[in-house]
Specification:
This protein is an alpha+beta fold. It contains nine helices and 13 strands.
Length: 293
């Protein structure tokens, strides 16, 4: 059993995952529950996730989320979803109840309503912090601090099932309908129950051009450790973009042995737990570095 999450603010989520995994719950329930709690917490909205996230340039919060099991063909995602604070729960329903794999915009919202989800007014999706940031953007063209803090979580359960999930409210003040890497399989996330799983965070408009999560899992399939795979993918991207032009990207991965790896082009804290640890731990990767547990 093991769990890993992107960024420092994932620590409570990884702790929740640890408790659920030790209680014998399956990886998909673990990931969905942990992400949903982060999404619905207005305080984590400033990390560009769910309720309290930054709106688009028209003042509307639009969320992307996806969930992928290691079993072939088990994937569901939503994008540009408005008015629903826990989009990962809708993404799971897409995986389980829809003939499609990715629903967007009005179609995603209509599907959510059919499954019993209730839309909330946009005002409920904003926090005081994000509403103020939006006003300053309109009045002063003031951007928020740099950062793309998508939540990405991976869980490996006692039955050998592995699931990865991601969620984000997207780039602050983006164009309406903009979708980043997070809900795209192979880009924001990827899982294979014979190998492991990976998730990405950072500049989604750039990340989607390189399919890094798929690449990480493929390298693990070929025998690389999670650390080696993340490092190799990051190095490949940096070679292709020119080192000094590299964009913000962080990668986490977990193999079927419960080994964790990560790499990043920026300072990147992440949290993790496995059966060899008594509690959740956090490590910080410095720029262009990687580490293996």
């Amino acid at each position: 059993m093991a769990a890993v999450g992107t960024w420092s603010f994932s620590r409570p989520a990884v702790e929740r995952m640890r408790c659920m995994l030790l209680a014998g719950q399956n990886a998909t329930d673990v990931v969905e529950t942990a992400i949903a709690e982060v999404e619905d917490d207005v305080e984590t909205g400033r990390h560009i996730v769910g309720r309290g996230g930054y709106p688009n340039c028209k003042g509307v919060v639009e969320c992307d989320a996806a969930i992928m099991e290691g079993v072939p063909g088990r994937f569901g995602a939503v994008a540009a979803l408005r008015g629903i604070a826990q989009p990962c729960r809708v993404a799971r329903k897409v995986m389980e109840k829809s003939p499609h794999s990715l629903l967007v915009g009005d179609g995603a919202e209509a599907f959510a309503h059919e499954l019993g989800f209730k839309s909330e007014p946009n005002a409920n999706m904003l926090s005081d912090y994000s509403a103020t940031a939006y006003r300053e953007f309109l009045e002063k063209n003031k951007p928020v601090r740099s950062g793309h803090d998508t939540i990405g979580l991976i869980a490996l359960d006692t039955g050998g099932n592995i699931t990865v999930g991601v969620s984000t409210s997207g780039a602050p003040f983006k164009s309406p309908g903009r979708v980043g890497d997070s809900p795209l399989p192979g880009c924001g996330l990827y899982a294979d129950h014979t190998v492991g799983a990976a998730a990405a965070t950072g500049d989604g408009d750039k990340i989607m051009c390189y399919c890094p999560s798929f690449h990480v899992v493929q390298l693990m399939r070929q025998g690389s450790s999670p650390n080696e795979a993340c490092h190799a993918v990051l190095a490949d991207i940096q070679r292709r973009t020119g080192g000094d032009k590299s964009f913000e990207i962080g990668l986490i991965s977990l193999n079927m042995k419960g080994e964790v790896g990560a790499a990043s082009s920026v300072e990147f804290p992440y949290t993790f737990w496995n059966q060899g640890l008594s509690s959740v731990e956090e490590l910080v990767i410095n720029q262009y570095k990687s580490i293996n547990i």
